[in-house]
Amino acid sequence: MDNLKAKLLAGAAALTSISVPAYAQDQGASGETSARNAPIVVTAQRREENVQDVPIAVSAFTADALEQRGVSDVSQLSGVAPNVTLDGGTPFSGSSAVLSAYIRGIGANDFAFNIDPGVGIYLDGVYLARTVGANQDLLDVERVEVLRGPQGTLFGRNTIGGAVNIVTRAPGDEFRVRGDFTTGSFNRIRVRGTVDLPITDGVAMSITGSFHDRDGYLERIPYDGPGAALAGNSLQYTDFLANDYETANDEGDTHEWSIRSRLDYDNGGRFRASFSGDYSKSDNNQIANRVIATTEFVPGAFAGLAANNVPGTGLDVVTGASGFLFAGLYNFCIGASPADLAARNAANLCGPRHNVGGYDTAPPLADPVLGGVNFPGNPAPDLLPYDSRFITQDIDQSYATGNNYARLENWGVSATLEFDLTDDILVKSITAYRRIDWDVGMDLDNSPLAILHTSFGMDQEQFSQEIQLQGSAFDGDVNFVFGGFYFTESGSMNDFVTFSDALLQVFGPNDLDTENYAAFGQIDWRATDWLGFTVGGRYTHESKDFIGRQQDLSGFNYDLFNCLPPGPVCAAALGFPDPNQPFRYYVSGTQTKSFNNFSPRVSVQLYPVDDVMFYGTWSRGYKTGGWTTRLSNPLPTAPDFNEEEAESFEIGIKSTLFDRLMTLNMAVFTTEYTGIQLNFQQGVSPTIQNAGTARIRGAEFEVSIVPNEVFRLDASVGFTDAEYTNVLPQSVVAANPFQAGTFAGADLPKAPTFSLNISPSVTLPIGELGTLTMSADYTHTSSLWNDTERTLLLRRQSVDMLNASVTFRPPSEQWSITVGGTNLFDERYIITGQAQIAGGQIYGTYSRPAEWFARVGFEF
């Protein structure tokens, strides 16, 4: 493999070397080939303008550029834009439709309803509020813009790291049909098609559909290791509470379809309108998951030696380590003798699990007693212990037998209306409604046991209304945009998590309502031919209401403290907030928080010569706070976290050189990042905290060179130095055998130091037969940490990713044939994962292996 990699890199270097003369061809927004870098029109500042005129670090990709690079969803933009890390999937989300998005070291890596993203995703100007469903299929798009740095002035809250702006293609004014059929590895079948339907003069419609089916790349196999004969004695996954029940023999598959329609009205008059609707549905298995290590041997405080315990309980408060954590407790229970149980006050801990918890539909457990089932003479069927025997040698195999599904319905409608008040001023309205219905169930322990099973269900709906006043004055020297924004969101989420054969069963139904309104404005003034200024700001008010009902269905605390039966008396003694709801961890009532923020932006531009702009920008952005919901102990108050903020300084250059034969853009930046919201593992509970402050510095370089009609080269380089300058005491994680830790001077998660992308393409005429286009896309990304605590086994090592394809087109260009491969170096790295040390395992999702594909496209 190393020899193949060396040869392929040498070939890429050879291709790059012929680009030095820099005279170019480009496939611009229209898809037409020209001997110039065709300008790309973007709306990064809420109005249409050439990307080279925007004093913002923004990467814009046309539909042709996305197809050439093999980019079909948002996560695949990772690497092709500098200092951008986009992953399909977050820890225990179970679905690649969940987007983990980071730009310049700022983002969010969770899917919970109470946690907002740090990178805003926009679809035709409509904000997508949840990370669930944000990994959009880039179906029939005109372009995608990746804006780097805080975008709070024009895009609002939760764009503290940046924004991804997806713009769909407007329907054409002539009848047209185009599409493609793709097959490939893992029995892949993908069919896409779009139809442009002119209705009358000024009215046109497009309908686009997609179907994608592909087998999973991780196989679930029967366990055949030590003690395999005992596997059938364990309870089945259907014996435990879950959001739903469904399993399958593989993981990481694709079974989804989508449809989008858009109707545009523009008769050349003062009024224009665009109406769109989209619907997507997926019925997949969970994302591929593999246990990397088990941690049942790590000591803990449960069932400690009696001399160390709170008198009469099973909790060690003297050493905190003479007992077990959850997986170790399960192993102790099944092998304990009556004397062992008595010596540790653990008879109730290992005894019947209550399984009531105020949840009326809880099914009874077939055999709830664990204590001593493997002890000689106990007639109960022996059970398998949980340990490293369940770590498979092949990263694409698992012994899991539990829940295995990820289902999503994601749809929305929007209307964009424009009216020209004068020749220079227009008013624009964007109205949208969207809804998500999501269900996922995962077996995360790699075994036929129920050591860590999760399932979630989310229902979310949102409505947004934006009004903009755009225009220019003084012969175009002044351009402005002013506006107002209203957003409301509501929904609920159910969490079910089973630990260690139901020693702990967490049930977390939560409700959230959000209301947000904002006013914003920006003025761009070209004072002279060589000097320009930009001033803008956004004021935002947001209020949130939250109801948390987190509870333990097994009554673990009551067994731990030997305070039985669960009820008002013991609930009060153990600190449960509502004695009348003795299993409820979370305080009763509605929690309320409100946020107010002003995010300004100031920029100065210098134009020393035509087609060259130097700029300096100061900007701020913020992300709202909320509540931590994943409790595994009762608390007297609702644990919350506050907003986070970023202040960024950036200087850059945008240049179009050699009569548009080359574009060269560079930027350097520094960001002060405060109130950082990070996900920390507290026992078995991933909880959100404001961790402290960080300083992020970096640089970006992007170049596009088209020396002739044969060759094109796009390349980018990103550098990021992102480290904590201060970590609050409650958030410090000391270095330990499993983790590098979190402290001042440590690196932020999901922030590689260096990234490089090189994308050459060669188009060769082959006589009268047509053309042959050879394309490659190579990305190198240095190592990064996948989690807050910087777990050593979850660290993503440096990655060299190579995709390549060859496309044949006849002179008519009405059809094409493409063959190619993705991940040709077969790099297998960890996309996401969790160190669930208290639960008993460290697990992660590996990237897809090397794959081939063949595609037939058509257009007429």
UniProtKB/TrEMBL annotation:
SUPFAM superfamilies: Porins
Record's keyword annotation contains Transport: yes
Coiled coil: none
Signal peptide (residue range): 1-24
Domain of life: Bacteria
GO cellular component: cell outer membrane
Residue ranges of every copy of the TonB-dependent receptor-like beta-barrel domain listed in the record: 373-824
Presence of the UniProt keyword Iron in the record: yes
Keywords: Cell outer membrane, Ion transport, Iron, Iron transport, Membrane, Receptor, Signal, TonB box, Transmembrane, Transmembrane beta strand, Transport
Compartmental location: Cell outer membrane
Topological category with respect to the lipid bilayer: Multi-pass membrane protein
Biological processes, Gene Ontology terms: iron ion transport
Pfam families membership: Plug, TonB_dep_Rec_b-barrel
TonB-dependent receptor plug domain boundaries: 51-163
Family, as annotated: Belongs to the TonB-dependent receptor family.
PANTHER family: FERRICHROME IRON RECEPTOR-RELATED, TONB-DEPENDENT OUTER MEMBRANE RECEPTOR
Full protein name: TonB-dependent receptor
Species whose genome carries this gene: Parasphingopyxis marina
Higher taxonomy: Bacteria, Pseudomonadati, Pseudomonadota, Alphaproteobacteria, Sphingomonadales
